[in-house]
User: Fold these one by one.
Assistant:
Number 1:
Amino acid sequence: MRKILLTFSLLLGLFFVSCSSDNKPKVVAEKFLKAINKLDFAEAKKYCDKDSQELLSIMESFSKGEDAEKAKAKASDDDFTITKVEEDGDKAKVYYKAKDSDKEIALDLKKVDGKWLVSINKEQGAKEQGGHDHDDSEGDDMNMPEEDMSPEETPQAQDSIPAA
């Protein structure tokens, strides 16, 4: 009886250890990145929060056709390298580099119901795809007339063709 109880305890302990090792930011990020790299959006969604799943659904709709099939065929598990992990309570950042790049990219994760999930917002996704942040406070709208201007202060359009 004692041997059975000991064996059962060991198996139960191994089960908990194996389950908990899958729930670390680095492991979750690695699985997510491998799935995204292979354009396997169904698999990638398993490692994301709901908002990120919606973004992946949009990405999935654009990744159809011959080019997507070629990208899937070229994908490999060593196309990226995780460089570091920063964990802070229920939030984490996993940094990685693409195979042919020196640029380090951060992937945000958060703990939801005790489980680490990738959390991508629209701005972060655009920035990582080569877009830029738009911050109205930096004067990007300098050429736009103020709404409070009087008609005399409003810039007037000029003809681009000289008068004869």
Note: Helices lie at 2-21, 25-37, 41-45, 50-62, 66-74, 122-128.
Number 2:
Amino acid sequence: MVRARREATDAIPVTVLLDTNVLLDVILDRTPWADDATTLLDRIARHEARGYVAAHAVTTVYYLVERAKGRGAATTAVSDLLDILDVVALEGADFRRALALGLKDYEDAVQAAACLKVGARFLVTRNERDFKSAPVIPRSAAEVLALFAPIENT
């Protein structure tokens, strides 16, 4: 994963919220999804897209990475994500909105509410069917990458 400090950018063509599973694919190198998810994070780090993560997902990522790889890996992973992604701060109204969405899985509903809060164009996930009835557009990392011009070899 490319580690780069975010800078303010006015003309970002694609804004996305990354689901927890996509972040874990990168950090835990889960194949076959890790390559596309890593490439998408790299594009975000290069300011070719704007990426968000829901606040509650940060703690979930830390917990799961710590269990799988230890505290140091979890700290590094979360630090890297915070360098690349903007965090969607969630409040009581957002959690109520998630309840009102009526999705089967409440955590998915909170992800959708975070996506709506920041006006992200896509919710990047591996579980598109979980968001079928949500008022967001779920897409895989590969589908979002298809929106970009090919990466130039330098």
Note: Confidence is low (pLDDT under 50) at residues 1-10.
Number 3:
Amino acid sequence: MPGGLALLLGLALWLGMALSLAAAAAALPYDDSADPHVALQRALGQARAHNQYVLLIFGANWCQDCRELDKAMHGSSAPLIESRFVVVKINVGNFDRNLDLADRYGNPIRRGIPAAVIVTPADQALYATQGGELANARRMGEAGIYQFFSKMLSAQPRTGGPPP
């Protein structure tokens, strides 16, 4: 009986670890199987239909600042972002994936990730981080990230674009 109990406890421990790993994987912001080119085209169509901008977020799952930015974007910044943007997350891996998209928008990842680009529904870049502005998202905190997006939005044109 003690051997059976040890086996049962071992199985329970293994199952708990497997569930924890699955939950952690589900919480990762960048989908390794996603095609960002397809997601971008879909987002441009949605942006046209809803009079919004597209917000491209370049990052990677290994990047703690990228994960912190994602948390903030689903926290206090969510209403601001959802009202003005269709968001597309672009996984750059270890700076070896989807670099064509980064180059297309002026290589905003040059000074670090996460990086952001605001694009019109006609696929014209209006703003791109160039100096690693979000690369310290951990230190910025939710309030600092909210302030960053508020400032980005206030700098965007109001005529012919998404509503304020």
Note: Strands lie at 53-59, 85-91, 115-119, 125-128.
Number 4:
Amino acid sequence: MVSQFVSSHDVRLLGALDFDFPEGTHAVGRLDSLSEGLLILTTNKKVTNLLFLGEVPHKRTYWVNVGHVVPPETVELLRTGIPIRVKGGGYYVTTPCEVEIIDRPAILSKHKNETQPDVPNTWLSITLTEGKYHQVRKMVREANHRCRRLIRASIEDLELGDLPPGGVREIEEEEFFRLLKINNWKSAISSDDFVWEPSIENPAY
């Protein structure tokens, strides 16, 4: 589905989920239609600014399944910075991030791209603080690996956990901001207090 409640296109939207969302609910940190995982839905207009426009960048962890075996030198390349293509045809070198090879997360449901278990593949955990357009997919592609599956596992200490596909879990406000490591949420301004237009190559999600 698309990570929004309204669209001019004939697509499945968040309103199709089996949950009675309060008026004004919107997505923060949207996922593209081919990705899975943790998605924040809130009525609090401060959250986007606090997560993406604050002085302290917030970590986001992704589980990535790629084709073939990933050698140690490729892991190091992804960690230290790899050139990815950006708008206009140029290249941008990603900032250093955390990358490690992991076992397949046991909590994940099976996916259509995992119908051939004998085909060599690797699971990676990638934790970064920047969010260029399709950055993780571009990073593994430039490292000569095809992204078979991409799941956002956490934003700071707010974790996907055992939440099933399409599942919704409510969190108390103070606990929510504690897990996101945001301390100034009571005094912060909301998105209505200023005009901000995200770049397509560095969106706030």
Note: Residues 72-80 form the longest helix (9 residues).
